[in-house]
Amino acid sequence: MNRTYITGLLPDELCRELGLVQKFRGTQIFKWIGNGAVSFEQMTNLSKDERAVLSEKASLRSSCVSQVLKDPDGTIKLQVTLRDGRAVETVLLTDKEGRKTACVSCQAGCAMKCAFCQTGQLGLARNLEPEEIVEQFLFLEAECGKLDNIVFMGMGEPLMNLPAIRKAITVLTHKDGRNLSSRRITLSTSGVIKGIYDLADNGPLIRLAVSLTTADEELRSQIMPVNRTNPLPELRTAIAYYAEKTGKRVTLEAALMAGKNTGKESAERMIQFAQGIDVNINLIPWNSVEGLPFTEPSAAEVRNFTDILKNAGLNVTLRTKRGRTIGGACGQLGKTLVDSVQKSGL
């Protein structure tokens, strides 16, 4: 008998998939899932017989946590094994105010091949299903307590799996379930222009971040192949459209690499790109990835680059380095998976 995985289903879909005659039962089950239930046995407002029947039909988890890694700075990374044996990573980030953010993956691997990113070296295995995305959030809540935010900044390019992300967001924000506010959700893209317009026109209404890294057309095409088919002038137009259409300020992210994109000319190009559109700039000193031909920038490089942008009147944030000892920092996801394969001799 094929079991149905139900974590990515809405109340009416639960009724249909589980053959529930009474609609309120779908809402009850949905609420239990949003509260973190992992089995029907926990659903005490269902009869014992109902729980037994449902347990035969369906499962509340399609994946499982196969590894938990903890950094001294408080960052926690989970390796999640999917039902087909593939694995992804999801990370808990905690800021200075104690707010907890889930950084979730949307794909097993990634096809974007950004030269400075560990995940980009893995290649793309497949898109994740909605329940596999929702489960990452629930796994982190089970490990760390109630979370405040979710960012689609883990493994994969979110705008290449937008239908599943839309469904996962619908589940997580539903008033009868987890009821997470859409204002607490951010999606980060490498710059898929078609997807930016799709998100702006068709929702959901969430925050957008764009991994810009450099506003040098030639350099960006070298280190971010997505730029070859999504050039900077058209990307800038799409970002401006998103900000105007949604009324939400867009974040431009830049991974700073020593001697690559930290000079005065790089800063001036970024200023030119950013001026006139409603953006914040989030600077991220590159986190070292073994085998990649880049170097972490010096404190002086980062400071000078930051000062040039600020002096031009831009809103700039320097991201704190966190999760580096467990391969949980920006650009490092997938390291644990690579290490596991190497240790197994595969």
Main traits of this protein?
single chain, 346 residues, alpha/beta, TIM Barrel, 10-stranded mixed beta sheet, two-stranded parallel sheet, 11 helices, 20% strand, disordered C terminus, rRNA processing, tRNA processing
Largest sheet: 10 strands, mixed
User: From the coordinates shown, what is the CATH architecture of the largest domain?
Assistant: Alpha-Beta Barrel
Main β-sheet, spatial strand arrangement: 3-4-5-6-9-10-11-12-13-14
Low-confidence stretches: 340-346
Q: Secondary-structure element sequence?
A: EHHHEEEEEEEHEHEHEHHEHEHEH
Q: Roughly what percent helix?
A: 25-40%
Q: Give the termini distance in whole angstroms.
A: 33 Å
Structural class: alpha/beta
Radius of gyration: 21 Å
List how many beta strands DSSP finds.
14
Chain-averaged pLDDT: 94
The number of helical runs is 11
- Oligomer status: single chain
CATH class of the largest domain reads: Alpha Beta
Protein name: Probable dual-specificity RNA methyltransferase RlmN
Active site: 89 (proton acceptor), 330 (s-methylcysteine intermediate)
Domain Radical SAM core: 96-329
InterPro entries: Aldolase_TIM (IPR013785), Methyltransferase_A (IPR040072), RlmN_N (IPR048641), RNA_MTrfase_RlmN (IPR027492), rRNA_lsu_MTrfase_RlmN/Cfr (IPR004383), rSAM (IPR007197), rSAM_sf (IPR058240)
SSE arrangement:
Layout: E1 4-5, H1 11-18, H2 23-34, H3 48-57, E2 58-59, E3 64-70, E4 76-81, E5 87-94, E6 100-103, E7 107-110, E8 123-127, H4 130-144, E9 149-152, H5 162-173, E10 185-189, H6 193-202, E11 207-211, H7 217-223, H8 232-246, E12 250-256, H9 264-274, E13 279-285, H10 299-311, E14 315-318, H11 335-344
Parallel strand pairs: 1-2, 6-9, 9-10, 10-11, 11-12, 12-13, 13-14
Antiparallel strand pairs: 3-4, 4-5, 5-6, 7-8
Helix pairs in contact: 1-2, 4-5, 6-8, 9-10
